Amino acid sequence: MPPMKRRDFIRTTALTGTAVLAGTWSAGAGSAVPAPQSGAGRPILITSANGAAAAEKTMQMISGGSDALDAIISGVNIVEDDPNDTSVGYGGLPNEEGVVELDAAVMHGPSYRGGAVAAIRNIRNPSKVARMVMERTDHVLIVGEGALKFAKAHGFPEENLLTDRARAEWLKWKENLSTTDDWLPPHSIDDDGIGEIYQNYLRHYGTIHMSALDANGNLSCATTTSGLSYKIPGRVGDSPIIGAGLYCDNEVGSAGSTGRGEANLLNCSSVMVVEWMRQGKSPEEACLLACKRINERQREKRLQDEQGRFKPNVKFYAINRKGEYGAAAVRGGWNYLIHDGNSVKKLEGAYLFK
Questions:
Q1: What is the pLDDT of residues 265-288, one digit of tens each?
Q2: Residues 6 or more apart from 342 whose CB is under 8 A from it?
Q3: In what order do the strands lie in the sheet with 246-249?
Q4: Regarding predicted confidence, which is higher, 224 or 38?
Q5: In the chain, fewer beta carbons within 10 Å around the N or the C end?
Q6: Are 239 and 223 in contact (CB under 8 A)?
Q7: Per-residue DSSP letters for 265-306?
Q8: Catalytic site residue 207?
Q9: Longest dimension (CA), the chain
């Protein structure tokens, strides 16, 4: 599938990267999820490039009749538990003080509920805690020390999440500090050459997002991350913020993001993707519109390239209730994954700029 370029996006109304997966499925015996929705497509999921094992687990459960959110959380737990993924959960790169802080959020389409935790320490599966917030509190978001106490009250064990590999990477960053941290001098939107955090190989960000349509035609999603490496302690990105890092409407579709969280916080990107799908845009078109919105609203020169375009990357993933999918990023040269009920497939994502 060739990536959609900006000029093609402007003049095109068809979705080049979307597949309509028709068919009817029924939930397994004893399922407590609502009855299938009319017009819903066959089960499908979309996820970021680090979610291959998570996708297999999620679709296995969905095919067995599980609710989408049950399946998604079980899937992303694989990535949260993987010490080799330094952007999520156990083994995630720490904040600037060497402490791992995690963010996660979940949304459940059939019940229109959500839950989230942010800057939680010592708990390796924040997606599970986010669901507990949704199901066992009157709140949507709990942060920091309060999130840790809440998790411990519900039996989640504390553990040191900083692996030897992540510690070595953090020490390497500490030993090479220059303009690559998040403490900036006083500056205006016209100042350039400060905070070059995305140009240095020592800094990176990463996340896993997954949206899924289950056998009963219900949507859910989750995002979980250790956030920007070496961030200021207490920094919260878009991942645990419903409407920014993810959003789900069971009548329309589900969307989420990875990349520079601050851009999504300022643009409420994921809810916008779903609203554009509500207006009839395909998932890919809606994701490209979110990228375009971010680029056009960027005013800080330090975050612009030589052509005045948004310099960091932001990626979006979306599915609608018909089983159509699509993804797009500000910058090209990237891939995402879908599982169509048969296998995991890696696809090239659309983009605004190469």
A1: 999 999 999 999 999 999 999 999
A2: none
A3: 246-249, 253-259, 314-320, 325-331, 350-353
A4: 224
A5: C
A6: yes
A7: HHHTHHHHHHHHHHTT--HHHHHHHHHHHHHHH---GGGB-T
A8: yes
A9: 62
Q: What is the structure's pLDDT at 175?
A: 78
Buried b (16+ CB within 10 A) or exposed e, 303-324: beeeeeebbbbbbbbbbbbbbb
Percent of the chain residues topping a pLDDT of 70: 83
Between CA 321 and CA 283 the distance in angstroms is 10
Catalytic residue among 207, 223, 224, 258: 207
Q: What is the distance between the alpha carbons of residues 121 and 25, in angstroms, rounded to a whole number?
A: 40
Percent of the chain residues past pLDDT 90, beyond the cut: 75
Token pair listed for 104: 């996660």
Would you call 343 helix, strand, or coil by DSSP?
coil
The torsion angles phi and psi of 175, rounded to 5 degrees, stand at -75, -10
Q: For residue range 122-169, list pLDDT tens digits in order.
A: 999 999 999 999 999 999 999 999 999 999 999 999 999 999 999 998
Closest CA to 247 of 292, 214, 277: 277
Which of these ranges, 81-95, 184-198, 243-257, has the smallest mean pLDDT? 184-198
**Cβ atoms 211, 254 nearer than 8 A:** yes
Question: Measured between alpha carbons, how far is residue 82 from residues 21, 77, 94 in Å?
Answer: 31, 9, 15
Q: What share of the chain is helix, strand, coil (3-state, %, to 5)?
A: 30, 20, 50
CATH homologous superfamily, domain 6-23+37-353: (Glycosyl)asparaginase (3.60.20.30)
The structure's pTM equals: 0.84
Distance CA 145, CA 135 (A): 20
Written as six digits, the tokens of 45 are 């999921």
In sequence order, the 6+-apart residues with CB closer than 8 A to the CB of 344 are 52, 55, 56, 337, 338
Domain ranges in the chain are 6-23+37-353
pLDDT, one tens digit per residue, over 319-345 is 999 999 999 999 999 999 999 999 999
Residue type, 95: N
CA distance 197 to 178: 10
Residue with tokens 């993707």: 273
Q: Are 80 and 125 in contact (CB under 8 A)?
A: yes
